[in-house]
Amino acid sequence: MTVAPAANGLTPAASSALPAGEAEHVSASACPACLAAPSAEALARSGDIRGARIMLSLPTAHCAVCITDVERELSRQPGVRSARVNLTLKRVSIDAEPGVEAAPLVAALDGIGYEAYELDPGLLSATETDKRGRDLLMRIGVSGFAMMNIMLLSISVWSGAEDATRDMFHWISAAIALPTVVFAGQPFFASAWAGLRRGRVNMDVPISLALILASSISLYETAHHGHQAYFDAAVMLSFFLLVGRYLDYRTRAVARSAAEELAALEVPRATVLREGAEVVVPVGELVPGDIIRVRPGGRIPADGTVTEGTSETDRSLLTGESLPVYAGPGVTLSAGEVNLTGPLTLRVTAAGKDSSLHRMADLVATAESAKTKYTSLAERAARAYSPLVHTLAFSSFLTWLWITGGDVRHAINIAAAVLIITCPCALGLAVPAVVTTASGKLFRKGLLIKDGTALERLAEVDTVVFDKTGTLTMGAPAPENLFDLTPAQFAIAAALGGASSHPLATALAAAAQARGIVPAVLDDLREVPGYGVEGRLDGAILRLGRADWVGAEAGSVTATHLRIGTEAPVTLRFADSLRPGAEAAVSALLAQKKRVLLVSGDVEGAVAALARRLGIAEWRSGARPEEKAALVAEMTGQGARVLMVGDGLNDTAALASAHVSISPASALDAARTASDIVLLGQDLAPVADAVRISVQARRRIKQNFALSALYNVVAVPIALVGLATPLAAALAMSLSSITVSLNSLRLK
Amino acid sequence: MSVLTYLIPISLFLGGFGLVAFFWTLRTRQYEDPKGDSERILSDQYDDHPKG
After folding, report:
1. What is the ipTM of this complex?
2. CB contact under 8 A, B19 and A137
3. Which of A21, A86, A141 lies closest to B22 in CB terms?
């Protein structure tokens, strides 16, 4: 992992993203570093001292001990000034000296048993959303305060306050209610106005109308010593609706910021050889014919042919192949592959728009535009609701005008009562309350819902398509036949394996460490790029690597070979280790009667073996990216609702074209962006839970709609015949809102 | 009914006091990490110096 350069160069605008405790100083201070070191404030203002702010995601943190462990371990790291865990968002923000990188911190947390992923510290958008959340909370607070006080006065009126006392109570209510409605109602007014200007009537139009009508009629009635005022109803309406709005907002904000900040790990730069010197340029400036250098561990920035050097490349994210592929002079490589063992020099054959990476992006764009826009349950309800309410209120106005023979005051009163009674308090809470409960439950299980409608779409899923490498498997090999090694051989293998960054070698070294094997001390340890690792012990040449180089027989499975001096070579076989929870997830999905498919770009043997192991009946191997997307599109065309679970670039188009999609946090940026839900932890088991919970959530949403419809069916006729009192309106409004909220909490 | 002349201002003042307190908690960002705060009281690490 690398830190994006933005970590060291916080812009002043990002400086208001401070940990909770330092917030009092927000306005006074110009940068985060000043807060950590106030004495250096003057220097810092001139821009000389800048701290690095690093954000890490902590999917497994859940308790007080986790907080103290993580904070203590991080503060022990060199260069870290302070660290603060936010358990609600499951992340830690670290204030560090300039130049401190995230990778060692992640490793340190890994050492004490916490998974951590780097988040993009470009916090600008998070600050922005924070502000909006606080703004909504403020409006809720104000309308809550107003609601309680007005209710006190209203109850006195309902219990029999008369004449001058009633008028005074109404006037005090008006003094509290009118500023409150103006302030707290702004989100609704703004949204209604924006909708009207574009010629659409959204849910906020009847809400705004009810708020304005209720307030002005009550004011008029108060001025004319009327008996009934709806101030409490207007304020209560805005309170309940704001609560719904806030819940809705928070679910989305939490998900959006976390998903956006899951780090953009790749800095899109390439090292180019120009007139003998190495120059670092943005990838966009590469042209065919450029000579580029790619170090071991680096991602290849453009399509090209190898001119110098031998190595192996990992193309699992591009094609799903789990085996590293040999790369030597003359071999053509695609952008996105990872160079594993030796430095490579490439002549660029296609860059930018022509590269295979960009063709993949085109594929994603096509898939996304082909996908029909999903209309959420809330949108469908609002579409049916607004015209109905307006017609109802207007016709009751006309009818009463006709009945009373032109009593405008009475007719408007009735119309306002209808608008208030039908106003969608419960409707506004029906969806957000359920979505908040459900996404909170899923978040605790390690799933991040990026899109509010993803839950609804997930509930409709009947087909699940899994990718293999990196999704059902970890994408990291684990040795299978270590028992073939004597302890002495194991110690030598561990020493050789530790000298290379090749996945098989590191897996071998890690296995040795896990079993407590101390690596042997070898001489002349060196890596032969593209072939393996060589060393000496007591004059004997030791080799670990490719079959032909070691002198062993090449097999068909993933393997490396160990030769000690003149002894017969030992073959070590590897298998991609299964992701934890993969078996549980697949069997739970099969138990829910879903059709489960395994589609991979890997070779037939590996895919078939995994499918058999997990009990997946349908599988396809050697699938290219466009074939995956086509398969998803074909199934969708046959009426299936497809959930795609994948992590690679090769899955991205399929993720985008599926009805709903999930990708693990370890997936590439592009895949995570294309998917609706991100799996934060390593465990795959929550996928099946997510499907189950979403089905339940959709049922609750529909129940809530039914509940509020029922309440309207009872209350609207009362309002229409002119029998609705402010007391009845208040009772019905609060009762329905509370029923709906309680019903949402029943989600298990 | 003269009791109203001071009871109503008192009730409004108390309510307003609560509202101001709520604004203060908002401004000092006490709603950023409700779950973490509820867990932090279990740790004795902050007994002497509440952290942040």
Report:
1. 0.84
2. no
3. A141
